[in-house]
Amino acid sequence: MDPSVDTSFLPDRERELETIKKKEELVKEWRELQDKEKNDLINISYCYWDGSAHRKDMKVKKGDTISQFITRALEVLRKEFSELKTAGSDNVMFIKEDLIIPHFYTFLDFVATRMMGKTGPLWIFDAIGEIRLRQDAALDAGEPHPVKLVLRSWYEKNKHIYPASRWEAFVPKKEYRRTCDDLSDI
């Protein structure tokens, strides 16, 4: 027997148990970090869009779904807009950067994966967000565009008119670009 021979590739019950224990600890730590991240509060600028903007802000958790956000926003907006009295979250569309976002996404989905819209990341809530990813003077206007909350019925009546004519369904893997001929569609 040569004690200098490498046997690390051979099965070893103790090493396997240690590896399993380490994996379980890492999974537990990751889940705790995810729960903490989901409970972080963020400020979302939004507006009810009926042809003109009515801007508001709301603090939500990163783990909240778009549907939960719409439900809370409707509670605030119903006080001002009678047409929203009977509207539920299913009757309201969530538009960000000319993209129609499905209700099942959470804000954390966009923040963690840095999902891109037509003008850059859809949401940035960290210090890096202060530095533009693309050097474009047109984008450096300061405040981000607010989310538009739109009644589906309004969209169906006005989808052929700007700005609704530019809105499209969000596709996660699609690479959105801003092109020079964007304005020719108007």
From TrEMBL:
It comes from the Eukaryota. This is Protein FAM50 homolog.
